Amino acid sequence: MTTKFSKVLFIQGDDSANSLPMLCKTLEVEIEVRNQPGDVRASELNRPDLLLLVSQDSCGLNRNGVPVWVQRLLPEQSVALFGVTEDSVDPVHLLTQGVKGVLYHNDRVDMSLSALRALIQGELWFSRATLEQAVCQMIGAQAQQSSRQEQDKLTNREQSVVRLVALGARNKEIARKLFISEYTVKAHLASIFRKTETRNRVELVSKLGLA
Predict the structure, then answer these.
(1) What pLDDT score was predicted for residue 17?
(2) Which of 14, 34, 57, 85 can pair with 39 through a Cys bridge, CB separation 3.0 to 4.6 Å?
(3) Distance (Å, whole) CA 95 – CA 61
(4) pTM score, whole prediction
């Protein structure tokens, strides 16, 4: 088995009976087990060959259900959570924060073994639905950023014209609302189309995410 991580460090909290360390031994990787985050020296962390597997109940949680200690390590340290209680975390949030995977406390042994094998090989361990949601969020965020960048090219007056265009206002109505002439509205629109590289109102509204 080709591995990305040669060592797995478990922080198991009070769950000393957890079987994951024993399962991990079958995967020909070095393991160590600690009870609490305070048992881990700073010099042991931030190694590219180290995977940190942290029990959710090993330390205090933030409002998103993520161990506070883990939050401080992300995204530099490769971390996955285990012993996670259903509905206690948002897996999409964990993924976008840099967590490598989530193993739930009621996972079957065969699923846990598959998860460990995938994580050690450098793969993510999340459901397909979680991955799809994360991708959609990322695409949406990129689209919003692109829209903001396009709008930043426009003057305040041009942005006012765009907002009215998005509401379906025609040139005469825009002129009346902004107390300018229709000729000035046309000039603004020509400038807006040029700056945003659009050809008409439909393209403009779509590109700026105002549809």
Answers:
(1) 61
(2) 34
(3) 16
(4) 0.66
